[in-house]
Amino acid sequence: MRNWLTIVLLLLWMPGTAFADEALWDRLRAGGLVVAIRHAHAPGTGDPPQFRLDNCSTQRNLSASGRAQAAALGAAFRDRGIPVGRVLSSRWCRALDTARIAFGSAEPEPALDSLFGRRDRTETQTATIASLIRAWPRTGGNLILVSHNANIAALTGLSPADAEIIVLTATPDGSIQVLGRLHT
Description:
Strand content: 15-25%
CATH topology: Rossmann fold
Structural class: alpha/beta
Oligomer: single chain
Mean pLDDT: 90
Strand order of the largest sheet: 3-2-4-1-5-6
CATH superfamily: Phosphoglycerate mutase-like
Order of helices and strands: HHEHEHEHEHEE
């Protein structure tokens, strides 16, 4: 009996447990939050030298496992009844593909474009994203932002894994608060 009680108490106390994850999914089910997602797996780092925004064949693209991650992401939202209000994505193909596979469609948003190797844009793009988060209504569907590691790190201080979910909200004083992290 004592071992059972110890295990239950540890599970309730430990951050990142299934209990904490389910509580965060419940908050998402209520709507009105912002979900920042790093694009699914695209092998490599940065962009190839011949990179062109208008040509996906010149970019790092999702691998087969990345496409599966994106599909699992969308299934997790659908299976849990998570309301999706608006889906915004970086214009990079790996982000757009992640958003479209997961949620069916996405609006390209330049402020979500990769900051990797573009430090001169960090402050402006991060401020634009923070403004979008502050303006998102606290009722209705959730705002989905599909972007890149550097962008999410600049906004939150966290370095998300491929297809990782970072749940955000704006506080009354206007700061951006991280409510938690989810993996599908």
